[in-house]
Amino acid sequence: MTSNIGWELYRSFLGVLREGSLSGAARALGITQPTAGRHVAALEEALGVVLFTRSQTGLLPTEVALSLRAHAEAMESTAASLERAASSQGEGVRGVVRVSASEVVSVEVLPPIVARLREAHPALKVELVSTNRVQDLLQREADIAVRMVRPRQEQLLARRIGNIELGFHAHRDYLARHGTPRKLEELAAHSVIGYDQPSAFVRNAGKSLKVFSRDGFSLRTDSDLAQLALIRAGAGVGICQVALAKRNAALVRLMPRTFSLKLDTWVTMHEDLRNSPRCRAAFDALVEGLSLYIGGPAAEAKIPRARPTTPE
């Protein structure tokens, strides 16, 4: 076994692992199929293991291949971070900054913030990662993350934005057809929009809301965007961000005094990026934009520069 294995071999290995075939990996990576095949064969020879077996449906990863995946993905993340860092060298705000946020925040909240950021810094390129999975900033899966939970790693810079409030909402057309529930118990007679598979957030919500259970949902989806679309379409009663609902006059908040969930919202990045002009500009733009989204125009004057946050 040799320790001098080039990253391109692992890159092709990841491509085959994700696509299930040499041809698929080649298309995804922009290389030829024979090249992808040579890379995988060279990696197998260097490691002295078999990584894939052939089947009628394509290439199947062995247990060894599956055990290597996380390590190869960490290498991929590091390589991407190196490329972003290299591209940002020079004067001014330029290069690539990678921002991670939840689906709803990425689609519904960040676009105007990113648009203003790009207008101010046209040489800056923004990669927006829309995912409900918490990206690992220590492994540089992203440069900056918008999180709905307080960061616990001491190596992170963090700025608390405030609380994003969630509440029950329904379209006024739905309420005109089915009536307006005044109590939580009355939701049983309505089309309630909720999750399909429970998550950590859902389990926490269920502690304070007994009616929030899968069996009580008439419409089930684990996509927050799909739930929001169903509410807007008048399909039923669902939970969405209060600030988002206020943008649509047809959406009515239900039982605000009875039910309210608040998500503690933070903008975070690795402390090593403190002096990066591209990350500094993006971080400050996110802090300002999200503060305005949560608190309104008055919040703008209260925004200090980001500073390290030590876990309590």
Outline the structure in words.
With 312 residues, the chain is α/β, with parallel strands linked by helices. It folds into 2 domains: 7-85, Winged helix-like DNA-binding domain superfamily/Winged helix DNA-binding domain (Arc Repressor Mutant, subunit A, Orthogonal Bundle); 92-312, D-Maltodextrin-Binding Protein, domain 2. The chain is 41% helix and 21% strand. The chain contains 10 helices and 12 strands. The protein has helices at 7-19, 22-29, 33-47, 63-87, 103-120, 172-178, 200-208, 224-232, 242-245, 277-295, and strands at 52-55, 58-61, 95-101, 124-130, 144-147, 156-171, 193-194, 219-220, 238-241, 251-254, 261-270, 307-308. Strands 3, 4, 5, 6, 9, 10, 11 and 12 form an 8-stranded mixed β-sheet that branches. It has a two-stranded antiparallel sheet with strand order 1-2. Strands 7-8 form a two-stranded parallel sheet. α1 (7-19) crosses α2. The chain is globular and about 70 Å long. The protein starts with 6 loop residues before the first helix and ends with a strand. Mean pLDDT is 83; it is low at 296-312.
